[in-house]
Amino acid sequence: xxxxxxxxxxxxxxxxxxxxxxxxxxxxxxxxxxxxxxxxxxxxxxxxxxxxxxxxxxxxxxxxxxxxxxxxxxxxxxxxxxxxxxxxxxxxxxxxxxxxxxxxxxxxxxxxxxxxxxxxxxxxxxxxxxxxxxxxxxxxxxxxxxxxxxxxxxxxxxxxxxxxxxxxxxxxxxxxxxxxxxxxxxxxxxxxxxxxxxxxxxxxxxxxxxxxxxxxxxxxxxxxxxxxxxxxxxxxxxxxxxxxxxxxxxxxxxxxxxxxxxxxxxxxxxxxxxxxxxxxxxxxxxxxxxxxxxxxxxxxxxxxxxxxxxxxxxxxxxxxxxxxxxxxxxxxxxxxxxxxxxxxxxxxx
Length: 349
Fold this sequence. Notes:
about 350 residues, disordered N terminus, alpha+beta, eight-stranded mixed β-sheet, about 20% strand
């Protein structure tokens, strides 16, 4: 049985946050396995406490006011985390999160920042890419979360060499990913495999991971010829709202010192759907992609990814070193503030 606590005590605040999370879990009328795992990992509750909290009446604004002002944004982000953990934000969950934001006294801008931060950051955390190991990357992600038109992480692409490919594929299969497609490139010899997990409304998967495998006999001068580990992250792709202006987003990021190695590139598939992309200049060999899906007349997403579009990206990467060499020291310093040289994954259990 939970004992009552005095107003504004740490125990009271912890209980309120736990109740917020439990209300979100129950909002859509079902408790799924990913939500159970998240609760086990993030809520340190004594036996029976979760059931006792769940039996309490819904939180009021007076209850939410017991959370200290400096802790309210974090509380809302934790509630967003559990809502997004199954990659399916139900209308009931979204309505409840909006009520929590209002009850916590957060501004519409703060509520929007919390939502976008979770959409951008949580997919990486689920892959083992976390803020403590990658502070520069997460500074960049916070910048993106505050930039209008940037929605969420679309996918991550990892690179490895042929001897490590079996280990890498087994790693993603163990995490529930399945092979969705494969392309072979010749100018920059490699295999490019897409792996997907789950299925979300309106799209054929919840999560997408790319794996680039360098051929054993690839020329040592190719962009992906460096010695790599089984799960070295090459790039992260961020999804852009179909209604957003890519040039406006580019200009906003450039004002913060972010540099790009390509202009906005546009492709169309036979059905008329479009894909617009731009890529940041590399740091090490790591870069960020921004991708905007423009549905065709039938409402379907772009389906024109092929070996040639991948080759074009590697051609741009091959020339990125010359572009980097042309920068002044101050331009390099501004860029490296946002992009890390290496991205670390949490060690596997």
